[in-house]
Please model this.
Amino acid sequence: MKIELVENIKNFDIEVIFIKNFKALNKQTIKILKEFNFEAKEGKNLLLTDAKKLYIGLSKLKNEDLKIAASNAINELKEYKFKKIKIALAEDKKELDLKTLVEGLLLGSYEFQKYKSKVKNSSFDILIDTKNSKKNIEELKKDLEDIKTICSSINMVRSIVNTTPEDYTPITMAKDAKKIAAKNNLECKIYGEEFLLNNGMNAMLAVGRASRHESQLIHLTYKPKNPKGKIVLVGKGLTYDSGGLSLKSSTGMVTMKCDKSGGAAVLGIMDSLKNLAYEYEVHGIIGAVENMIGGEAYKPDDVLVAKNKVTIEVRNTDAEGRLVLADCLCYAQDEIKDIDYIFDMATLTGACVIALGEFSTGIMGHSQSLKKKFEKASKASGELVGFLPYNRYLPELIKSSVADIVNSTSSKGGGAITASLFLDNFIKKENKKKWLHFDIAGAAYKERNWGYNPYGGSGAGVRMILKFIENLNSK
Ligand code: BES
Ligand code: ZN
Ligand code: ZN
Model:
């Protein structure tokens, strides 16, 4: 699908028209729309081939409503053979926000067809008519390029997440990191299990021990000239989570290819930075590991010593993500000095999905002001978030009788928060207020469409973190 800006389009097969109400329409059009029972509501579409018009209902001509409507339009058009599709940017004194419109088109049209024997080919050109736009054309061109960059990274993340665990192993993730580095001029370091052993990263090492695929520690760096500051992103890249010896149920295990979503989101963000010309130095660190069963598997009752020497009593091998992140967070803070922000992203707990519902990312951390900044960034990005609070009693739950901490509590409640408090043991004093934890277990993957997110991986985390960096950048 190509998207181009053109002024005053004459030659097209069909025009998409978004309808919030009937006010600006002429009597004849209103009559026809009413005859076909069309309403100006989300989910209502009407295709009039003779008139070369596709009407799409929505309740607001902006933000998420516009993205969902654009996605509905594109998915409707996939059913037909139109080649040139016109969308007018400005009409009747109203102007659509180009980035919002294109985001809906590009994210909404994504389809994962790698494993289909018959691939659907719906290739068409979207021509966005800039006639009557009040915006400067150079600005519009830049907006279009920027949103194309972001959406292409998100669709890449979705494809990584959707790829099977047999096709996407820790080594595959490392290879992808190298490709992304080569494309974007990033520094790229890849380490295997020998490095983990030599550097005391025993918690991460233990999780991958029963897998036939070697665990990989990935470190990408984006270094612009004269950076304004330093941001560190750490991602959980469990290419499969069987639960280990604390085996998941057969239904609980299905979809666990999505457990690499945090790592994949880090790859997606790293893939966008150069094109967006952000002025922050950004480090992307991923623990790519597979959690399996077998004679070599780590066990409940084991005690693991993490890179910072904190000892961990394993009580549940299915709480593996926090073990991988623990060592990756230590590695990040040992390697990188003068950090301004450190964020980790992980499909960490089912408890987060219970707490916030399946569409929202759980954000946790010590700094109220940093959480406020993220509230703003997430809203502007279109990603849904909720903030889960710490308190003085919850840390008691992760204390261990035999080691320093346990990896899984016996308490029924607050599992997303106690997982975050576990990670807090691996955050250095000087970074406490610079750290946020993002639990994307709900938003990262779904076995059905929602809004402009198709079945499967959504790319959760990418847009809000890029928006956060963009906000810093423009200061
Ligand atoms: N990868 C899972 C969490 C998850 C659940 C991700 C649902 C996506 C959707 C994680 O490793 C896990 O199994 N967590 C356990 C923790 C528990 C054993 C303390 C959980 O949430 O049940
Ligand atoms: Zn698990
Ligand atoms: Zn997991």
